[in-house]
Amino acid sequence: MTTRLWAILLAAAPLAACGSSVPTEEAAGPREIGVLTIEPRALATRLDAGEAIQLIDVRTREEFAQGHLPGAISIPLSKFDPLTLPPAERQERILYCQSDRRSGIAAERLAQANNTTVVHMAGGIAAWKQAGLPVTR
User: Fold this and answer.
1) Nearest CA to 107 among 27, 33, 26?
2) Block means of pLDDT (10 residues each) for the chain, length 137 residues?
3) By the 8 A CB rule, do 102 and 126 touch?
């Protein structure tokens, strides 16, 4: 664990021991903030299982038209604004691009704007295709 996370946990311990009836973020536990990656096959497994996922492709519209993950929406990085994203309706947002550089940038923006953890696909659509997974046009 990071030093910051330990500090939060240690600070929360006395609050939890007092039996406070008012839940606080510290008492409920720290929220993780940052960017995580998911491997293409793991994402495919989750999609096949019917998990509620909003896929966001941050490549250009031209790249998107050449092929994208089934069900993905196109929001190019040049227009990516975390405050104007379509509602996720209880879906987890997972971002991707060609290689994972642009989706990493977009994920950082989204994580900071929403004060939460955001996931993007490792290796982008190139890794998805290399794993033999389907794309649609």
Assistant:
1) 33
2) 35 35 40 89 98 98 98 98 94 97 98 95 98 96
3) no
